[in-house]
Specification:
This protein is an alpha/beta fold. Helix content is 31%, strand content 22%. The chain has 8 helices and 12 strands. The chain has helices spanning 4-14, 40-53, 64-77, 96-102, 117-124, 155-158, 176-185, 189-192; strands at residues 57-61, 82-85, 106-108, 129-132, 136-138, 143-147, 162-168, 172-173, 197-200, 205-207, 213-215, 222-228. Helix 4 links the parallel strand 2 and strand 3. The longest helix has 14 residues, at 40-53. The mean pLDDT is 92.
Length: 229
């Protein structure tokens, strides 16, 4: 005798599949946004322009030492005493963790799945900044791309009033579709191995019925990106 589950699944399988005459997925798509010059310099210029238009900030630097100095300047500008951060293995700057600790800044690497979740989140609320790397950045929309994994959760990207992301120049791709195409070619690891993926294009923004734009209501009011050349 079949179970209720088997009966339901049997009925679903017996139903005619919708859109049987739909054409197959095309091998290529027309891009939604255009970027003819895909050299690293051109992608950085476009990413900077787009993110600046979205009220974000981009800080190109040469080398990891300069990146460490720039991050420290940004943290000091916010009078940071408590920082939410990814595991520093996922932030491409050698010596950055030590520099932050030497400055007397408390580092919290939040894992909200433990038994101390409530206590941890209460501590996170008072952090002045979040510090992360990123999976990639899309030049034509000024977008940072993130997938979650152990040591690289979402809290540092959304909870603090300032989000600082550090990326390498070769992480900038022409457009979001470029990153998705690369994911397809490698078996979609960003989708199948992550509980969450997200696109962040500038600071959090809210527009009310009077069309007044307000930054930072539902997330960071500042997004600052350090790009290592």
């Amino acid at each position: 005798m079949s179970s209720s589950r088997d009966q339901i699944l049997g009925k679903l399988r017996a139903v005619r599949r919708p859109f049987e005459d739909a054409p197959p997925r095309p091998k290529t798509y027309l891009p939604v946004t255009l970027q003819d010059d895909t050299s690293p310099a051109a992608l950085l210029e476009r990413f900077t322009r787009e993110l600046t238009n979205l009220k974000g900030d981009v800080f190109p630097v040469t080398g990891e030492a300069a990146a460490c100095d720039q991050v420290m300047k940004l943290l000091q500008a916010q009078s940071t005493t408590r920082l939410l951060a990814w595991d520093f293995a996922h932030i491409p700057v050698a010596g950055l963790e030590a520099a932050i600790r030497d400055a007397g800044i408390e580092i919290i690497q939040p894992n909200a799945h433990g038994a101390d979740r409530d206590e941890l989140l209460a501590q996170c609320v008072n952090a002045q900044a979040g510090l992360t790397g990123a999976d990639a950045a899309a030049a034509t929309t000024g977008t940072l791309i993130f997938t979650t994994a152990p040591g690289r959760g979402r809290i540092p990207t959304v909870l603090a009033p300032v989000h600082i992301a550090v990326i390498a120049l070769d992480q900038i791709v022409p457009r979001i579709e470029s990153w998705i195409a690369a994911q397809r070619q490698s078996g979609l690891p960003g989708f199948t191995q992550s509980a969450n993926f997200c696109f962040i294009s500038g600071p959090s923004r809210t527009g009310d019925i009077e069309m007044e734009l307000i930054l930072g209501v539902h997330g960071p009011g500042k997004v600052q990106v350090v790009v290592i050349q």
